[in-house]
């Protein structure tokens, strides 16, 4: 289990303590500090120095780009299965038992994913957000052909396509990671958007995929997270500039972008499109018929705008891209509609739908991802009672 960090060292401490409290002795934690001030992490790790499960990678002389930081983290991990989370996330230590149980039933499994809860740290959103707790606990196999259609064909996509199988908030067998390293550039991570890089390679090469309806992690968002800027043009521009400065170049100007006029600065959908375009052009992946679905997803990305002004800016950018792309062939499928943001201070929706229980992220007084997960766990099947009928 690997936890990269950048200037948010305090967020992850309860996650690390929870993982170390697990009775499993075969868990390995690779803790990576990539901050401007290493003293905080150094002091925290000093108190855990006697635990043999910890491998600690200290900060370098200056912070590394995300892709280089994840590269060194993966290289340091030695476990049979690998999962990455961020410093503002949470992961259930009982996941290890689930992996072992699934592997016993499906020895040739390559990748396992699960539903995630969400949590916005204070300051990440002006109003309280909600998270959805699935009521199901099935363990199901996902057909590779279906996954390819949804990921690379954008079939049924929202703002982004399905790419839940990766090394981030999911887990992948280490031997597949090593095989993919030799297949793809002799690196674990090549593209700057590392979670998407990982997902596209795993989905394109893995044999069997298993998905758990029950969540096993919490995807956290703090005020300095890239996802905190979604729908806000000025914030997104600032985060985009910071990301490219860390990278040392603007990837939107890379040569392969010449025939794909949707820079990642446009929004979340464009960012995924850029990553996929890189993967397709670099490794010759051909998947027909995705463009119409991509256009519909871009329209949905516009609808995430925080204000009418932001909506018009995002819409105009995407529209210009579609006019320039393949002679405007897919412009008719780009039909964004402005949706007025809610003005209430409460979460966007709470209540029960057939497959989900929607609660505010501060449900039961939760103030951290772990506290939210512990509160939600009372409505979920115990990990040891999940039926695995594969």
Number of strands: 12
Number of helices: 12
Average pLDDT works out at 90
Strand content: 15-25%
Gross morphology is globular
Integer-rounded radius of gyration: 21 Å
Spatial gap, N to C terminus: 25 Å
Helix content: 25-40%
State the order of secondary-structure elements, H for helix, E for strand: EHEHEHEEHEEEHEHHEHHHHEEH
Low-confidence segments, ≥5 residues, pLDDT <50?
none
Question: Which class do the helix and strand fractions yield?
Answer: alpha/beta
Largest sheet descriptor: 6 strands, mixed
What's this, in brief?
The chain is an alpha/beta fold. Helices cover 35% and strands 16% of the residues.
Any key phrases for this structure?
390 residues; 16% strand; 12 strands; alpha/beta; 35% helix; three-stranded parallel sheet
Describe this structure in words.
With 390 residues, this protein is α/β, with parallel strands linked by helices. It contains twelve helices and twelve strands. Strands 4, 5, 6, 8, 9 and 10 form a six-stranded mixed beta sheet that branches. A three-stranded parallel beta sheet has the order 1-2-3, with helices on one face. Strand 11 and strand 12 form a beta hairpin. Helix 7 crosses helix 9. It is globular, with a radius of gyration of 21 Å. The protein starts with a strand and ends in a 13-residue tail after the last helix.
Describe how the helices and strands are arranged.
Layout: E1 2-5, H1 13-20, E2 29-33, H2 39-46, E3 54-57, H3 66-76, E4 81-82, E5 90-91, H4 95-105, E6 111-120, E7 130-134, E8 139-142, H5 144-152, E9 170-173, H6 174-183, H7 194-205, E10 209-221, H8 233-247, H9 268-283, H10 291-302, H11 308-324, E11 351-353, E12 356-360, H12 369-377
Parallel strand pairs: 1-2, 2-3, 6-10
Antiparallel strand pairs: 4-9, 5-10, 6-9, 7-12, 8-10, 11-12
Helix pairs in contact: 7-9, 9-10, 10-11
